[in-house]
Amino acid sequence: MWRLLIGELYPDAEFFEPAKEALFWRIEETLGLPVPLELVELLRETNGVWNEYGDAVVWSAERIVEDNLAMRSEADYRELYAPFDDLLFFGDSDMGPQFAYVHTGYGPGIVVWDHETDERRLAVVSLRDYLVRCLTQGNDWFR
C-alpha cells in the first residue's frame, strides 16, 4: 500500500528493506510513546523514504530511536526548547524543520517543529497527507 502510494507520488523513489519488527517495540519502550500504526505499516514496507533532494522524509526505524533519544537527552536542547516528551520525530526537510507525531487527547497529528524558534504547529493529520505534500510540493509546503 505505502510503496504503491510513494511510487505514484514520486516515481524515482528508492525502496529499502523493511524495518525489523523488534525496532517498533524498541521505539515504544525507549521513548515511552506508541508508534502510530500508519508509521509501523510504512516501515514494514520500506525502512525510510527520501525525496528528490535527499531529505529523509521518513527516517529509518533506527534513526527514529537515535534522533529522538538525542533530542531528549542533549543538555543544550533541554535548556533551549520545551520538552519533547509528547513528540515522536520521524522526518525532516532540507536540514531545517522536523516533523513529529504529537499525541493529543484526540489522537496523533503531525506537527512541524522549527528549531530556530521552537514553534510547533499542526501540519497535517495523517502520514498519507504528509507524504503527498512532501513528495509533490517540495520543501516549502509547510511554511
UniProtKB/TrEMBL annotation:
| Pfam families (alphabetical) | SMI1_KNR4
Signal peptide (UniProt feature, chain positions): none
Q: What is this protein called?
A: SMI1/KNR4 family protein
Source organism per UniProt? Thermobifida halotolerans
